Each structure stands twice: as C-alpha cells, then as structure tokens.
Amino acid sequence: MRLSQISATLRDIRVSPVRSLGQTFLHDQNLARWIVKQADLTDEDYVIEIGPGLGALTEFALAKGTRVLAIEKDARLTKFLREKFRDRQLEVLHADALRFDVRALFAQQRVKLLGNLPYYISSQLLMKFVTYPSPISLWLFMLQKEMAQRLSAAPSTSDYGALTLLVQLHHRVKYLRTIRASVFLPRPEVDSALVRITPRDPEELPVCDQELFAALVRRGFSQRRKQLGKLLRPDVADWEKTAQALGFDRKARAETLSLRQWIALTNHVRPLEPPERRANDAERFPVVDKNDRLLGEASRAEVHGDNLRHRAVHILIFNDAGEVYLQKRSRWKDRHPLLWDSSAAGHLCAGEGYDDAAQRELQEELGINVPLGKVLKLPASARTGQEFICLYRGLLRGDPKPNRSEIEAGVFCSPAIVDGWIAARPEDFAPGFVECWGAYRRKKRA
Ligand code: SAM
C-alpha cells in the first residue's frame, strides 16, 4: 500500500494507529516486495506472519502462492485483512502472538516466520519464536535497528552481549539492511533493520550444556566492564589456568570472548561427554527367537550387524496436561542421531527383565523414577529393527532432568500435535518410536 492508500484505509476503517500496540505501517511497496523476497518463498512454504497490520508484507507472501497464517492482536485489523484478502491461502488469527503455541508448527512442513515486529515486545517475541530445536526453518524480522545490531554483533563491539550469544549458539544471523523511519506511517522515532535468522547445521559448533552456557553468559554480561574471572569465580576455580588453556587473556571481559570460546568455557566448567563408546561396545544383549524366547547373548555390534532379534523398552512420559515428552536423540547415538524418539528408550541388558530395564532407562535418560504401567508389546519385525518392544507409560509431575550426553533436547507435546508431526515430517522420527506411537494411538482409540 502506498502512503495515500494507508491514510485513506485507516480513515475508512476508522482506525487510528495505537502506539501501545507498536502500530506503524510500511508504505513503501518496493521495499515490502524486497523484504518478502529475502525469505525465498515458494508455494510449498507455510508462513507465519506476526503483526500483519494492513497486510503490507502479507500481500507479497500470498503472491508467491504461499499459505500464510497471520497473527494480529488488533481485531479491527483482522476484520480488515479478512475482507481485503479473500484468499483461501490466508488464515487470519485474532490473537496475541506471545500466546501462540509454537509446538503446533511441528505438524507443518517448511515453516518460515515473517514479521515487522511490534517493538514493545520484540525481544519477548524473539525469545519465544527463535528457540532450539524449532519447527521453523527461517526467521525474517524487521526490528529496531539497535536490536538487529545486537543480534548480529561480533565480539569486542558494544552491541555484542548475552542476546547475541544466546541466539547465535544455534542460529546464524544476517543483518540485511537498515530501514529508514520515513517508510512507515506513523513515523517511528527510531530506524529499523531487517535480519534473517537461519538454524545452524548441528555439526557446525561443538556441543555444550545449553542451560549452563546461558547461565554463564548472563552472569558474564551482568557487569560488562568487570573482568570475567571475578564474575565467574563461583563457577571456575582456577581462572588463570583456564584462561591459558582456552587461549584468552586472564583479564578478559565477557565481550572479548568469541562464541566458540564461550562454548569451550562451558565445556570446561561442565564437560558434556559422549556416552562411553567402549562400554557400549562391551554391552551384551539377550538374543531371542521369533517368540521372544531366549537363545543366548551377543554384542551390540553383532545384534545390529547381523539383524538378530533382541529386546527393547520404550517409555512415554506424560504430564498433567496429557502432553507426552519427546526426546531428540543425542548426536552421539550410533543409530538415528538427532531424530525424535520416545521419552526414554533402550535395550534390555543380558539377564534383565523388561520392567527393570524400563525403570533403569527412565533413571539413566530422564533422571526420574515414577511408577510405570505396561501398555503393549510389539513383535520383532523389520519395522522395529528386529526388536521386541515393551511400551510403558507413566505420569510425571514436574520436569524431567534429561541426561545431556544421551539427549540433545526435549519437548512436551499434545498427542494431536505428535500425530500431525509424524504425518507431516515422518523423517524427523526414529522408526521405533513411529511404530510405538502408532500402536499406542490405535489402542487408545479401540
Ligand atoms: N506488518 C505491518 C506492516 O509492516 O505494515 C504492521 C507492522 S506494525 C510494526 C506491528 C503490528 O503488530 C501491528 O499491526 C500490531 O497491531 C500488531 N501487534 C502488536 N502486538 C501484537 C501481538 N502481541 N500479537 C500480534 N500482533 C501484534
């Protein structure tokens, strides 16, 4: 929309822009077209647009044949958008984007997020929508220029801070261009900028304990001018030795450490170890016949290499809301690394029963101990990787304490989201889980 059209439209629909909702409308058509182009949209993408306003960006996203879900808090604008774009590809949601359940997007393919964000909540929106792991594959945000600079900052600059590192740990951020205040009506007091955020390749950086990384970074930047050694004294006993080993000055301040150095520091404080490879190789599993009768024992390599029938447990942990906890398998797993799986799962060891194995796996992987009920048993087949699988379920009040050497990340999801996610992106899941979940849902429905 051009400037004159925006003024006329606002008059027509009797809307005067609400400052407290961050309402400033883009009136440069060429710029709007250029912005949307940066998302490389195709008709296979699904766009979530935060704060569509009068549809300046929505129009160009729809022109690409893309399905768009536009989340707008102002009911006057949602009414206008529904009337303006009678497009079957557009769904307009009258809602507060801060309350949107991002997990629902796992049931969609090729999700991209677009938004000229309302600045009064832009950092909250960023923290909510730019998470790891995420169903979103690209974020294109128009932000206050200062925030865009902070997100994309390099070490030893005044913009580099906790926000930079927390976002860049899992994402690449590109500052695309500065956008003058004069292209908006009403004109904001500050300039804006467009940033494109994409997920990093999981192998790009060394892995570390994400919660500890965030805690150290926040503490390190709590007093920017102070030396890091003093701020982190409770976490790092011998700072001088640590600084020397990790290759930075002992008088370093938070802003001088690169992302890789922050990761190294986190791993120095609490190393994340891959599960003992040699212990894994030495593990012996029971080998069974087609009726799950014991035949003998074999090593992990033999069982998997020779496709021998063996035994496993899967456990589904639910919370009070009826949501099931899914784990993203660690990158160090020899089978199906970084795929999503049951809350906990594992093989039976030689001499172990199914029930005992289920409790052991729960403790080892999620650090919890709750009563488990047996749900069903799946026969060994090519689809289960020749495993007889006993499936259990349990209820957890509180949070699991995932073992970071075994589990990359985890999320509670409603069964409906899990159903939709498997249908939309079956390649995201370990095959054993897909079998277990399908059998579990069929049994629930029966
Ligand atoms: N995208 C439009 C454009 O570029 O012209 C409008 C951008 S304007 C900066 C921000 C928009 O976000 C407004 O339409 C405002 O009503 C909407 N908004 C404000 N708070 C919101 C929230 N919590 N959830 C969803 N939309 C919100």
Question: How do the strands and helices of this protein lay out in sequence?
Answer:
Layout: H1 3-12, E1 25-26, H2 29-37, E2 46-50, H3 58-63, E3 67-72, H4 75-84, E4 90-94, E5 111-116, H5 122-129, E6 136-144, H6 145-151, H7 162-168, E7 171-179, E8 184-185, E9 192-199, H8 210-220, H9 228-231, H10 239-246, H11 259-269, H12 277-282, E10 284-288, E11 294-299, H13 300-305, E12 310-318, E13 324-329, E14 340-341, E15 344-347, H14 354-366, E16 372-378, E17 387-395, E18 407-413, H15 415-424, H16 431-445
Parallel strand pairs: 2-3, 2-5, 3-4, 5-6, 12-17
Antiparallel strand pairs: 1-8, 6-9, 7-9, 10-11, 12-15, 13-14, 13-18, 16-17
Bound molecules: S-adenosylmethionine (SAM).
S-adenosylmethionine binds at residues 21-26, 50-54, 56-57, 71-74, 77, 96-98, 116, 118, 121.
